UniProtKB/TrEMBL annotation:
PANTHER family according to UniProt: N-(5'-PHOSPHORIBOSYL)ANTHRANILATE ISOMERASE
Protein name as catalogued: N-(5'-phosphoribosyl)anthranilate isomerase
Record-listed E.C. numbers: 5.3.1.24
InterPro entries assigned to the protein according to its UniProt record, in alphabetical order: Aldolase_TIM, PRAI_dom, RibuloseP-bd_barrel, TrpF_fam
Homology family: Belongs to the TrpF family.
UniProt pathway annotation: Amino-acid biosynthesis; L-tryptophan biosynthesis; L-tryptophan from chorismate: step 3/5
Residue spans crossing the bilayer: none
Gene Ontology molecular function: any one: phosphoribosylanthranilate isomerase activity
Keyword Zinc recorded: no
């Protein structure tokens, strides 16, 4: 079954909204460049306000190993999402502590082979500018889309079913098209995103 992640969670009410909508994972962005950046304290409170069945994903970009591990620990994250050009050693070191969503841009797809059989690393394909709301060219990506990878980049309630039909990702992730403004969720969009992804699972994937 498809895994659905709602990213850019910045408050307890938005965490509860996404969990009640049926999201499998909530993203908490610690990258300094983000307009949705949260502190460890806010992420911890929001993450702990939902049940343990909902994954709490700490999102990082170009940050040092110590910072990633320290923030993930103090915010009680259950997994870590890594953006940016990173060495394999760095990703391995994080994966020794947390399940990792390693984010690749289409131009970086050669790195996918490195993580093919790694038990703690799952790939996610995303647009070159994370959190920008820009969609990838799914048809162009199809021949090289790694089996078992997740998809992000410009997804929302109105296009997630089509993206799933083209690429059959193992998970989908979104933020921009689920917001009223950066860091504040649009209730209707979150509900429709999760429901549409669930319904599209039945249509796009072999049972
Ligand atoms: O969303 C951000 O502001 C952000 C900034 C820096 C690194 C990662 C960021 N977001 C990570 C995500 O997981 C987003 O959901 C993903 O990039 C898709 O974003 P969107 O295209 O806006 O749906």
């Amino acid at each position: 079954m498809i895994r659905v992640k709602v990213c850019g969670t910045t408050s307890v009410p938005d965490a509860v909204l996404s969990a009640e909508a049926g999201a499998d994972a909530l993203g908490f962005i610690f990258a300094p460049v983000s307009r949705r950046r949260v502190t460890a304290a806010v992420a911890r409170d929001a993450g702990l306000s939902v049940g343990p069945s909902v994954a709490r994903v700490g999102v990082f970009m170009d940050q040092g190993l110590d910072e990633v591990l320290r923030l993930s620990e103090s915010a009680r994250m259950s997994s870590v999402q890594l953006h940016g050009p990173l060495s394999s050693l760095y990703v391995e070191q994080v994966a020794a502590y947390y399940p990792v969503l390693r984010v690749l841009r289409p131009a970086d797809l050669a790195e996918a082979a490195v993580w093919k059989d790694h038990p703690a690393v799952t790939l996610m394909l995303d647009a070159p500018a994370p959190g920008s709301g820009h969609a990838l060219d799914w048809a162009a990506l199809r021949p090289a889309f790694p089996p078992g990878a997740w998809l992000a980049g410009g997804l929302g309630p109105d296009n997630v079913a089509q993206a799933m039909q083209v690429l059959a990702p193992a998970g989908v992730d979104a933020v921009s098209h689920l917001e009223l403004r950066p860091g504040v969720k649009n209730r209707d969009a979150v509900l429709r995103f999760v429901q549409t992804a669930r319904a599209a699972t039945a249509a796009s994937y072999p049972q």
